[in-house]
């Protein structure tokens, strides 16, 4: 039967090891997720039709519909704003088109509704802050979240947003959706290495605790 001292030593060793191992495994899942996103962004352009729009997430797409005259503004930092316009698809669904970046002096750009074909990339991971409500002030939202914008305006928008690659207005510079930074391999190696180092250090410092006392060893 293990002594209380040995049990306590095992617990002290195992708890940090399990935490470090879990952190490394979590980074492994994050690595696969990021690699999947990057792979989708490198795939050929596809025309987005009906069905589940989420299936085209992070794909280069071509979308056709009626671009409305409504302008929505999302704060992008340093007196700049993303300007978004709802597009009515043939399915009867509205989706937000991120036309690009403008500065404060260029706000209130008016564009008449028109049927248009847009090249862009579909982004379906809107930022959500559960602690602070994404409430518009002076028609400007703090961050991009299609769901909260829908509730605020009383109009149902698809949660995905098309980042237009085309220049849709002379006063608007298209905002490129860049590939996500992927450092999860380094993070994973770091956590797994720390877990291994922890085991080695604990073994060196506590190996005497696990030594078998010859006096209590019974030979058969």
TrEMBL record:
It is found in: Cell membrane; Membrane. Keywords: Cell membrane, Membrane, Transmembrane, Transmembrane helix. It comes from the Bacteria. One of its GO terms (cellular component) is plasma membrane. The chain crosses the membrane at residues 6-29, 81-102, 189-206. InterPro entries: Surf1/Shy1, Surf1/Surf4. Pfam families: SURF1. It is a multi-pass membrane protein. Belongs to the SURF1 family. This is SURF1-like protein. It comes from Candidatus Mesenet longicola. The gene is surf1.
């Amino acid at each position: 039967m293990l002594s209380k001292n040995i049990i306590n030593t095992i617990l002290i060793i195992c708890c940090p090891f399990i935490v470090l191992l879990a952190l490394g495994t979590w980074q492994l899942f994050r690595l696969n997720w990021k690699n999947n996103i990057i792979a989708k962004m490198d795939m050929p352009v596809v025309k987005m039709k009906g069905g589940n729009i989420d299936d085209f997430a992070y794909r280069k797409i071509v979308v056709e519909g009626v671009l409305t005259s409504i302008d929505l503004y999302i704060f992008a930092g340093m007196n700049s704003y993303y300007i978004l316009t709802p597009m009515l698809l043939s399915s009867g669904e509205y989706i937000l088109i991120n036309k690009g970046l403008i500065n404060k002096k260029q706000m209130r750009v008016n564009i008449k509704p028109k049927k248009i074909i847009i090249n862009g990339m579909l982004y379906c991971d809107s930022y959500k802050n559960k602690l602070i409500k994404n409430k518009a002030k002076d028609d400007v939202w703090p961050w991009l979240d299609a769901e909260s914008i829908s509730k605020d305006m009383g109009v149902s928008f698809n949660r995905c947003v098309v980042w237009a690659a085309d220049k849709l207005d002379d006063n608007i510079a298209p905002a490129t959706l860049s590939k996500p930074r992927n450092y999860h391999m380094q993070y994973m190696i770091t956590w797994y290495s720390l877990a291994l180092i922890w085991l080695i250090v604990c073994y060196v410092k506590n190996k005497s605790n696990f030594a078998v006392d010859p006096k209590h060893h019974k030979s058969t």
